[in-house]
């Protein structure tokens, strides 16, 4: 495929994906009290048993002070737990709490439900097949 064609696809695809992502975020009432960074922190914690505050700050590319404020907010909402490290009492392990796990599951369910309904209502069977076939190439882009 020529560079010109891939540029045209990119120019058309980018705003559509951005709008879809924004719409999915807005349509999730369980997730409205959290910033994008806070949501990202919860997902990172879901992927690991625990992380340190400094590790989360590096992964999110924010200052340790900003991370501390975000973690305090997440702790106030009971979405994370903080545990003192057994090997080094100066370190605090941050983990996703049961409430945090439930919230992530609820948010995903709300988003999946809306998207499933929208696809069924708006897309023809042929368009649904095209969307299904597009998942592979889109996944490759995300994993780049």
Can you give me a brief rundown of this structure?
The protein is mainly alpha-helical and 144 residues long. It contains six helices and three strands. The chain has a three-stranded antiparallel beta sheet.
Q: What's the structural blueprint in terms of helices and strands?
A:
Elements: H1 3-26, H2 36-47, E1 51-52, H3 53-60, H4 64-76, E2 80-84, E3 92-96, H5 98-122, H6 125-142
Antiparallel strand pairs: 1-3, 2-3
Helix pairs in contact: 3-4
InterPro entries: HTH-type_Bedaq_tolerance, HTH_MarR-typ, WH-like_DNA-bd_sf, WH_DNA-bd_sf
Domain HTH marR-type: 6-140
Protein name: MarR family transcriptional regulator
What does this structure look like?
Residues 6-140 form the HTH marR-type domain. It holds the Pfam family MarR. This is MarR family transcriptional regulator. With 144 residues, the protein is mainly alpha-helical. The protein contains 6 helices and 3 strands. The longest helix is centred in the C-terminal third of the chain and has 25 residues, at 98-122. The model has no long low-confidence stretch (mean pLDDT 91).
